[in-house]
Amino acid sequence: SLIESMGLGGTAAAFAVNFTHPIETVKTRMQVSGDGVAHTVTSTARNEGVAAFYKGIAFAYGRELSYTSVKLGAYAPVRDALGAGKDAPFYMKFLAGAITGGVGSAIGNPFDVMKTLAQTNSGKAVPLTELVGDMYRSQGLGGFYRGVEVNIMRACVLNATKMGCYDITKGKVTEATGWGRKDIRTSFCAAFVAGFFMTCTVAPWDRLRTTLMNQPTDKKLYNGFADCLVKTVKQDGVLSLWRGFIPIWARFAPQATLQLLTIEFLYNTFGFSGI
User: Model's pTM, two decimal places?
Assistant: First the structure.
């Protein structure tokens, strides 16, 4: 069922984030500061300790169990409901991914906002309740939905690319190698390809999302997505939208692989058909 599939999707994502969260912390700090990978890693470790790479992990779990349970777990049921099976055109698979990604993003946005603020905090770690309380007192419930427009657009592009490319690549790998769709080698190859194309399409949206969500809790620097885009390009140039490309790929490739391999394993274990 849809609910069971979403539960398995959330479980797979929560497992994967344990391994990829430090990479995302580096990526997020790079997007905000403009520093390189090496400087970001060494300065974070030297000034804050290794534990700093796991700042915001509690919010990351909340994000995976809300947003990703929908975008990953609901993909196969929604795809099948749209009639986008094995031989369906690619745009139908992309549509299924965009729908589940957009809905999941709207649900998980508060966790995304708090996770971003926690990850970019270079001082002493702020307790979860204090961070949430400060945001609510300063901006009310609306503060938890800052950047929601670009986050939904990002999620639609991300999940359409991820699930569409994964689904299509599985078919191509099966045809080329003779491996079955449930073969772990097929899933691994398809997930790695999906991770690369996700990075290419999502990096600009990811940069703008981070910028919007990293605004101070007590003031608003941008009047929405368009204002943020114009100011970012004017200040840093168009190519700055792809800032952090390497760590984004370093996160997306293993994360997509871990998530997709795990959910395929869970589907097989519980008797569900695979993606």
Answer: 0.80
